[in-house]
Design brief:
The protein has helices at 16-27, 46-49, 78-85, 125-133; strands at 6-10, 32-37, 55-60, 70-75, 97-104, 107-113, 118-122, 142-143. It is α+β, with helices and mostly antiparallel strands and 146 residues long. Strands 3-4-2-5-6-7-1-8 form an eight-stranded antiparallel sheet, with no helix packed on it.
Length: 146
């Protein structure tokens, strides 16, 4: 199976510890973070306004696992990483920006659909087995075309 397009789904993220461990693994690999905009991006809350220097673009993303219209892509600087890590998994639900995706070489390697409690993550069979051995519950690998 082509690892570049192999993803597994988990609905098992209930603890902050598991969220941060998984998130850190994928943040280390990624170049960009992308978020769906839930509320008007012209009226950013102060926390999001602080990220503006790292904004790459606001776009109508068709390549996100879950696209709900307009999204914003940011360079993964220390400022953006700290912001992402300041939120527990449940904090993203109905936040002004939601459905975090992490991008590497133009490919979405990690995607969330927070209102469904879904996390899709790019991985090999061995990586999935290792994560599941640590208490995650990632299902079968599937090819997803970005």
């Amino acid at each position: 199976m082509d690892k570049a397009n192999s993803f597994a789904l988990s609905e098992s993220i209930v603890s902050d510890e598991k969220w941060y461990d998984l998130l850190n693994t994928y943040l280390e690999k990624a170049d960009f973070a992308e978020f769906n905009i839930l509320y008007d991006s012209a009226k950013l809350n102060p926390e999001l306004e602080f990220l503006e220097p790292d904004l790459v673009e606001e776009l109508e993303s068709k390549n996100k696992t879950f696209s709900s219209g307009i999204s914003r892509r940011y360079r993964l600087t220390d400022r953006v990483n700290k912001f992402i890590l300041s939120k527990s998994y449940k904090d993203w639900y109905n936040y002004q920006f939601e459905d975090l995706s992490l991008i590497k070489n133009g490919i979405e390697i990690f995607a969330t659909i927070t209102h469904e409690n879904y996390i899709f993550a790019q991985m090999s069979d061995d990586e999935r087995d290792k994560l599941n051995g640590q208490g995650y519950d990632f299902g079968e690998l599937h090819n997803i075309s970005n």
